[in-house]
Amino acid sequence: MKVVHGGTTVAGQVTLDLCGGGYASEQLRTARRQTALKKGRIVLSNEVVRYRDDGAAQAYSELKARAAHCPSHPVVMPEAGSPRVKFTIQPLRSIHGLVKDTVAVRITAAADGRVEHGVGVYQFAGTWLAAVYSFQADAATLRAVTQVAEIEAARLTETSGTSA
């Protein structure tokens, strides 16, 4: 496990980019920590973000709407120099024990002739977001994503005083 380059910086770093940019809640982030987790061939990213005011609720609303209505055409990504990406999003319903405000999805991203399949679990509670995602979609990776998401659900519940 290690903090990714820029993983503790808010300014100039993107948290939400599922189905492109344009998340107004990005301006409401006050802190973030993004780590890369690797065990054998499984690689995950875990990002924990703190928002001010109602920023986490706004981010949840934005992400939920975007996942439900992802454009069917390639979209501009917020990261500088990124190609346009065509996303296909499907709900991931096989994970239990997460916080109430969760977006869990299977992701297919196509750009520049390459196609990647992955999963993402985004949990929101109080002023916090805890996300875990991977652009690997095999059964072992899904189990690892599920395990980390369950750990994050327990942490969010404890930190925010909400229930899972």
In words, what does this structure look like?
This protein is of the alpha+beta class and 164 residues long. The chain has two helices and seven strands; from the N terminus they run βββαββββα. It has a seven-stranded antiparallel β-sheet, with helices on both faces. It is globular, with a radius of gyration of 15 Å.
Task: Describe the structure concisely.
The chain has 164 residues and is α+β, with helices and mostly antiparallel strands. Helix content is 22%, strand content 36%. Strand 5 (101-111) and strand 6 form a beta hairpin.
Looking at this protein, list some descriptive labels.
Protein Transport Mog1p, Chain A, single chain, alpha+beta, 164 residues, globular
In CATH, the architecture is 3-Layer(aba) Sandwich
Identify the CATH class: Alpha Beta
Given the structure, what is the number of helices?
Answer: 2
Order of helices and strands: EEEHEEEEH
Shape: globular
* Nearest-integer average pLDDT: 94
Number of domains: 1
Radius of gyration: 15 Å
Strand content is: 35-45%
